[in-house]
Amino acid sequence: MVDFNLQPGVRLHVKPTSRFHVNRILVNFATPQTVDNPASRNLLANLLETSTAKYPTQTAFAKALNHLYGADASASVGRIGYAHTLRVRAEAVDDRFAQPGVFASLVEILYQMIFCPLIKDGAFDEATFKTQRQNVVNELASIKENKQYYAAWQLDRLYYDQSSLMRIPSYGRLKDLEKITPSSLVSTYHDMLDHDQVDIFVYGNVDPQIVFDLFSQWPLKPRQSPLPQDVCYRQPFHHRVRELTEHQDVNQAKLNLAYHFPVFYRDENYYAALVMNGILGGTPYSKLFANVREKASLAYYASSQLRLFSSHLAIQTGIDAQNRSQAQQLIEAQVKAVQAGDFTEMVMQEVKDALINQYQTGLDAPGGIVEHWLVDCMSNHLPAENVVESLQQVSHDQVAKLAQKLQLQAVYFLDGEE
């Protein structure tokens, strides 16, 4: 990997490889999340990916991409700990398999998206703005209809402290979206360009010096990174378990639990945490899958997910409402079993093999590699080495001791009965 500082606060990361037929570019803008910026940046991402001054309609933009042998370009928002990110991506076939100049043209497309949006007289084009805002409104409104996603979001809101900005999703809230105007969004856009930490990732069959020459022409000003050195959110343990039951017209109830788990991305317990989660609920070999879903038939699905930038672990299940008490008892029993070391070496090895296979499969996808690279960069880590060896070295005792850090903090139940 070759790293360049284009400006203070603006970094270029290039990793040449001839493994793939495509070249992948990711331009990431990052700033601390606030109350208002998730909604405005989400809408901004939608506008950046649909039109530019040069390509004022989605049709014109699509034609430009199609001329680059079916290139792809998009923008979206996300969150890594405290950091709110707006990510602009592009991918096109490598010049070897098309013609010289495709990569340079792809960089030019990104330039048009980022620096030449469809702005007239200090405001985003009114018609385009209204269309994209309605699209985002529809997306946010539809979240409540996806009950599994909605329940996961409600568990997060219940887990995080009342004053925490983490309670606001990275894509924003409807009430914040309603305040945004075409001119106020221009202010959001310029604030992002002028003040966000910028990281540009290029992965493919490229010459680092040529890549540097292309991106060094971009008009990005020097800036001091607005992000703290550590972007992880650390919430203290609370002795009182927060519980919330909500009633809606649902065919399948949702029972979700959140545990305080002070382990963070790439810290000394990271690999043991991956194995522990795999044994608990993160793989088909897990206790939640085997005992809650398969043996007891108490859940339509049951899984666990690590939240390594926000100090917790979430368990999600879909159940019949009348089985709530029995299901929760059995779920908590699985946590206690892992804490007690009640799992076999064979299961632990199956989990390790599944995690290793997942990791190696990810190495075959340029997009996944670059997104993982972004997470490493945002958390100030070098790309991981010896991942397979690190997973294989995790011991039975390490997993059990680490699981003892799990402490129940929140229980959310979505019920269809009043």
Automatic annotation (TrEMBL):
This is Pitrilysin family protein. NCBIfam families: YfmF_fam. InterPro entries: Metalloenz_LuxS/M16, MPP/UQCRC_Complex, Peptidase_M16_C. Residues 179-355 form the Peptidase M16 C-terminal domain. GO terms for molecular function: metal ion binding.
